[in-house]
């Protein structure tokens, strides 16, 4: 073993471990690739290092950490070929590796964008809404989110050594938590290569990310109540970790994404002549062969109308027969090996359990032989399609997962039976419904949603852009109920919030404004002689406010606005019909009130305010009639420094303004928030 590299853990700012322990072999030809290290890790030191590191992490705010994520993604993208070279040992084809490597890097880009566009400057996220708690408007409450004062421990599966680490690291780093990543040992050589590139980038504050090669030792015993554990792997391991005495005793949040018996339903309305029929067949075969079926989201149960069972089986058999299995380096190979020889043995054992109540539709036949020199020593498995003609009587098909290129056909007689069979999996990450009819989707999806974390409705229209049954995406939840772990990963901002602590805050509007960094109505305002639109981004203060002059609405205003907008709705122009309405009179257009308010508070001369690019939370609270007089209150509500620059390189930020439009009685008639791009001095 002296001639193979020894993988190292990255602990407390140094690469650690030199003595070889377990040999890791190529999934393609069985040759030794690397060895784990024998030296035990001092997890007390690792945790202490991470806890100290959080101070440096929090010296960066949400926006700055998002910028670091983007820079890291660019750094890795420029060096991705080094990862592809290592990934070949896992048995993955180039396309398989693309999902893992560039999918993982793409997740960094996605969370960088979420940080820039959805998170504020600073390290406090005002979740809101503000709720009045008193009758005089002097006492209110709201919710805030702040980084947990702890460490995130991420335990990952073997099937996605790059994506698995990055999809957990991205929201964790954005949330301001240091993390310790523990990849599955079988493919940890690829994760180690990834972390070496990350460390070499020097983009992350030291201690943001540590890497564990090998076992977790007493790590979980040393965690505290502010820490978080996330896990991806088997349902059995998830159940064991969830019950870890220290996690239970300290109420440590535990998020699991576990293997599940995902299903795909071919709806009864689809016939062999429909385009959707072929889409179903392609989806099943793709999920069997991509990553050699080693995906927690792969289709394990293919549910089809009994009357179409033979047609589906024949088309699946014909397509599977064309799948070339072997060394991914060879041209024409479409499916590579399983990740390890242990995985190969495990899949074979589970297929034997499934075959006890099913017949073989396709398994490569007795002549199955993967292509490539040394392939006989590799961890290859033929695509295996089974058929359980009695899906209710064969319990194993709903309980046993062969984590490889294996799927089982299950016939059903009606849609209710199909949904019931899908639910026999006791919770899964994803299910697909292939149908032509919107009514079928409208009936099936609400029922299926109780049992599945994500649902894909596939028809010819969606197929043009569909990312497929098995593709978790950063903006959407990844997780599922029951056997699937009961947790949630990804999901855009939801994933970041998982690593933040939510707290309710009560106080006066003035105090809530100070805490949240957002103006809360009723709080103290800052009145100045300088129009807020004349101030640069740095100079504006939260609560800075302008009360405008007044304007009386006339019939001529309504007529002119109707002519310009083309809006001749009866409430604005028909005196008789308006009298019979709940308002009892003609009223002004709501959007005229909006426009008139802008005319009251806009400062027309060139200045720091560059553009109005959004309007949110608009409500027309009371009608404005002819003869009413309106007035606007403009208040700086929120500032977000997004490091934007203009063509001349001048900095820019985003300012959200609270707008209240009132009538002559002081009653609120319109309420909204406008977003403006504001120049910086420098």
TrEMBL record:
Q: Does the keyword Oxidoreductase apply?
A: yes
**Record keyword Phosphoprotein present:** no
Matching Gene3D superfamilies: Aldehyde Dehydrogenase, Chain A, domain 1, Aldehyde Dehydrogenase, Chain A, domain 2, Hotdog Thioesterase
Keywords from UniProt, A to Z, are:
Oxidoreductase
Domain Aldehyde dehydrogenase per the UniProt entry, residue ranges = 36-445
Tell me the ranges covered by the MaoC-like domain, including all copies: 542-647
Single Gene Ontology MF annotation: oxidoreductase activity, acting on the aldehyde or oxo group of donors, NAD or NADP as acceptor
Q: Where do the TM regions start and end?
A: none
Give the protein's recorded name: Bifunctional protein PaaZ
